[in-house]
Structure formats: C-alpha cells, structure tokens
Amino acid sequence: MTDTNASTTKTDEAPNRISTGVAGVDEILHGGLVPERSYLVRGEPGTGKTILGLHYLTNGTADGETALFINLEEATEDIKQNAAQLGFDLGDIHFLDLSPKSDFFAGDQSYDIFESSEVERDPIVEKISERVTELTPDRVFVDPITQIRYLSTDEYQFRKQALSFMRLLSEEGATVMFTTQATDDSPDDDLQFMSDGTIELGYASTGRTLRVPKFRGSATMDGDHALNITDEGLQIYPQLTPGEHNRAFVDEPISSGVPEMDELLNGGLDRGTVTVISGPTGVGKTTTGTQFMKEAAGRGERSVMYLFEESETTFMRRSEAVNIPVEKMRERGTLNVEEIESLTTSPQEFANMVRREVEEKETEIVMIDGIAGYKLALRGNEDELLSNLHALNRYLKNMGVTVVLIEEVSDITGEFQATDVGISYLADNIVFLRHLELRGEMRKVIGVLKMRTSDFERTLREFAITEHGITVGEPLTQLRGILSGTPEWADDADRPER
Predict the structure, then answer these.
(1) For the domain 244-494, what is the CATH code?
(2) pTM for this one?
C-alpha cells in the first residue's frame, strides 16, 4: 500500500516571487516572476501573448496591487471587449493608450512627411514617464514594445529608449512584462539581451507551446510545455520531469484475484512496475488488465482506465458481462474511466490528467488502453509521443503506481511477436495472450515473457473468459508449438479431456 504521507515533489524555494496568474507558468518558473525585473513575452500572432499579460495584470489587482497596461497598438476599448469574452474583468486596471488613432493618417500626417522621432517619439516617452510617476504601479504590461522601434530614428536610439524605459519602471518598483512582434526583417534579439527573462510562445506538432529559454536568478523547467487557449484564458501543461517526483511505497505484489494467473506471475504484479499486456484483437487483453483493478477495488484502492481505442459505453457493458462490476466500482470511487478524444489532447495535457489522478486521488493503478490508440489520439509525431510516454511511465513508477499498458499485435496466429511498436523497453513485465487452433477449435493461452523484478512461471496456460470471469488452467506442458498458433500434443496418451 502506498504511503501517501511520504509524497514529495522537488521544486526550488521561491521567496519573493509574484504569480503570473497562470498556475502552469508559475510551476514552470518554480514559483513565479522575480519582482522588479522585466520579462519579454515573444511569439507569433495568435499564440496568446496578450492573454498572458491579462492574467498577469488581473492577478495583481486581485491582490490589491496597482496594474498598468501600456497599449501601443490595440485601442483600449478593443482590448476590454476581447478580454470580456474570456471572462477578464479589467475594471481595476489602469490604461495608457498610445495606440494609433483613426485620424493619424488623415490630412497627409504620415511618417513620409516628418521624421518619426519628431512626430511621435518625445510625446510618447513623456506620457509614459508621467503616467508611471503618477501611478507608481506594481505591475506593468507593455503590448507591444516593438512599436517604439518604428518611432525611433535608428536601432541605437531604440535600444537606448527601451533600456531607459525599463530602468524607469524598475526604479519605480514595477515588475514589467512586455511583448514583441519579431520578424525576419526586424528581430528582437536586442530586447532578449535587455530582459531578465524570456517566455516564448509558439507552435509545434503537439499544438501551442510555451518555453522559457532565459530566466535570471532561478532555474526553470526545461522543455516545450503545452498551451491551450480556452474560454477562460490560458491553460498550461508543463512538460513532465519524472526525476522531480517520488513517493515512498511498499514493494509488494498485487494479486489479480485469479490464483492460477498469480502463480504465473509469482504472486502478481509488483507495485511501481510497468506491465505490457500484448496480444491480437479479441483475445482478452483489456479484460485481463481490468481484473487487476477489480481485485484492487476489493482492497479499497483506486484505479483509472484511459480508453484510446474503445468507447466508454462498450467497455462498461463488456466488463459487466464478464462479472467485473465496473459500475459499482465507479460509484464507490475505486475506478475512474476516461475516454480520450482523438487529436484534442497533447501528451503534456494527458500527463497532467494522470498526475491529478495520482496526486489528488491517490490512484494506485493506471491503465492505458491501448498504445496504438495513444499514438493516434494524441497530437505529435511518433518519437515525441513515445518519449512522453516513457517520461509518464518513469513518473508513475517513482510514485509507486502500477502501470498496465495494452498493446495489440497484428497477427492472430503465426510467428510469435511480443509488441508491434517497439515499446517492450518500457516494460518491467510482459504478459502475452495468444489465439491457437486446437482440434479444429479456437482456444487461448496466457504466458509471461519477462518480469524484471521477480521470477515467474515459464509455462503456458489455457485462458478463457466466461460470464463468471477469467479462468486460467493448469500448465500446458504436453503441448508443443503453442507460440506458432498451431500446437501439437507431445504424446497422444497425455491429452487432457475437455
């Protein structure tokens, strides 16, 4: 049984940090932003830069801080209207609207006639200075600071203005977040050097991402973290780092509740191990995994099943038909069944779902059904998905969770094959199920190919699923060629009666 009181998660101490307003970003930053410093938020249009700024400012006003939004491109009313659609209340936020007005280009008032510095630069600098001195804000969000670049005579003047601007805000005790609009013609490398930290928003094969390549004064979580834009703002799912999590647990076998199966497994599956149950379609892989959950429920332990290849309704109906009371297990809180929708979830988001189950619900068994469906349902290329699956399994093992992975092989009979997608390296244990033809009748067998943490029985046994549940027979020691799918009796006199 897991000792949940001994659960630990490694994080840096985060004194004197302020929240970004997004829990996932704070986790990545090991607590939040360091006060009175400046942070660059960069990324393509539509990646969520302004939304992150709204989270940041409203988090400050909720704590009674003074927040200033300096908008250099979008008008205040447009910002408020867009923010309201995401549920942000900007009533307590101060605005300094320096966006271009509709009459700016009227009457030949354009940068072609006057030097940009003569038209706009001095008034802008003066307005910012006056507003900051008047408010002495705790938090400032500038969106986007690169607009000032277009109002400067050259790059030197822009860098000088930007540096002095950030120094002014720092001297007033403000923590600054500012965005850029970097292009190939106008990169923002200079601003990256000036900032104390950089938060990059972008796109990858898994969807939108967030990463932190620079953060002075503290370590951060490495990797590309998943980002979703929802009706309530940003949702961040940090990349799972297995080494930062561990939990003490008792190293013991967990029973399947079927004595003959436990004999094959030398008592059962050891806690904190990963088991692959492989076999062709219809052989009983999911039912075998669910049998361990049924027995765990009898001990009062919680399990979770993630369905990637089967509907929840079909799984529930089929399990009930073979004497696995999944509905009662759900009612008692000893089972959770999650059907994962195709191509709507990133690997990081899925790992976050599993973490909540383990850390908030004290779940003891996690089953993923199945691996091929996992690869098809989650966004990302195959290498990324397998890498994330490996990290998830390492995390679960560190937390003392028993993992069951369902893997379908394509051949119903013929030459034996443990897995189709090369995941055997993830497994501490491999249990395989096979169809075979015996005297013109289709039968099934179960065997164990590998157990990393204990000995196991090296014989095969007949396997069946009835309305009363799983039955496993005695060792089939007199059969030869079982793994080929076409076995023969070694001696006719030893054939068992059916």
Answers:
(1) 3.40.50.300
(2) 0.82
